[in-house]
Amino acid sequence: MADEELPPSRLGTKDHWDSVYEREVRVYNDVGDEGEVWFGETSVTKMRKWAHKHIKPKADGSAVRIMEAGSGNGTLLLSFLTSPAPLQDVDSARAGGQRPPKYHLTGIDYCESAAVLARSIEQSRRETLPSEIENPESDSDDDYDHDSDDEEQGCGKGLIMNDVECSWRTADLLRSDLGGEKWDLVLDKGTYDALCLSDEGIEEEGGRLPSQVYPEKIAKLVEEAGFFLITSCNFTEEEIKARYTKVGLGEYPLPRL
Ligand SMILES: C[S@@+](CC[C@H](N)C(=O)[O-])C[C@H]1O[C@@H](n2cnc3c(N)ncnc32)[C@H](O)[C@@H]1O
């Protein structure tokens, strides 16, 4: 049976997202507001927790490579700047006694302004996070949800800075193969939802719809034995599974979010 398509909307157009991020960059520069967190902080926390649990450090000490498709303001990827650590380990971790997780994070979005915004937020987080971690009580009015791992880790404010390199790129994921590059984990939070609201066929792909082309593009970006983790508000788990496990695409574990 053919997949049912959603009715087209402005949220499926690049013009819409360009204007969103151009405005968000202006607002960020004016008042420091980081912009919309799609599906809220809870979804960021759930996706990050899933990754911490399932993606093991590399045996050779190299960085785990994570890419967010349609990274917007970058807040999901930037949640990997820190990790929760059990309280008794925090001091030793901060003193260098425990090696922090090492990540290479790549945010890809087709809006240049999204990359501009994400870079600014990254810079600000790198400046403020170390002192917030040192003085946990001073961050009470901070939007960044440091407490959100408490129930899993039982660690209060025990956070450590991870060893993280970030790269923010501009590319249309429907029209680029990104030079054959692959990642250990590819994240999608709201991007498939957005591009399924476009009825503009992709010329380079025989005029097929974004909803059909995107899963094939994503499949090529995931390392063998890597993961694709998606949060969607427009599709059920069964619909996502059906669209991302077609013959030739491979099979992905889909945590319930
Ligand atoms: C709903 S927003 C989600 C943004 C981000 N993932 C988050 O959770 O905050 C959808 C994002 O997908 C991006 N996007 C949509 N179609 C894209 C495409 N073909 N290539 C790259 N990015 C795309 C938009 O620019 C926008 O940033």
Topology summary:
Layout: H1 14-31, H2 40-54, E1 64-69, H3 75-78, E2 82-84, H4 87-94, E3 102-109, H5 112-134, H6 150-153, E4 159-161, E5 163-170, E6 183-189, H7 191-195, H8 210-219, E7 222-231, H9 237-244
Parallel strand pairs: 1-3, 1-6, 3-5, 6-7
Antiparallel strand pairs: 2-4
The structure holds S-adenosylmethionine (SAM).
S-adenosylmethionine (SAM) binds at residues 17, 38, 70-73, 76, 109-111, 114, 172-174, 189-191, 194-195.
EC number: 2.1.1.-
Protein name: Protein-lysine N-methyltransferase EFM4
Enzyme class: transferase
3D architecture notes:
By secondary structure, the protein is α/β, with parallel strands linked by helices. It has 9 helices and 7 strands. The protein has a single domain, classed as Rossmann fold (3-Layer(aba) Sandwich). About 35% of the residues lie in helices and about 20% in strands. The protein has a 5-stranded parallel β-sheet. Strands 2-4 form a two-stranded antiparallel sheet. It starts with 13 loop residues before the first helix and ends in a 13-residue tail after the last helix. S-adenosylmethionine binds next to α7.
DSSP strand content: 15-25%
Q: Tell me, what is the CATH class?
A: Alpha Beta
The overall strand count is 7
Number of domains: 1
- Helix-strand category: alpha/beta
Mind describing the biggest β-sheet? 5 strands, parallel
Percent range of helical residues: 25-40%
User: Kindly, what is the distance between the CA atoms of the first and last residues, rounded to a whole number of angstroms?
Assistant: 26 Å
Low-pLDDT runs of 5+ residues are 139-156
Number of helices: 9
CATH architecture: 3-Layer(aba) Sandwich
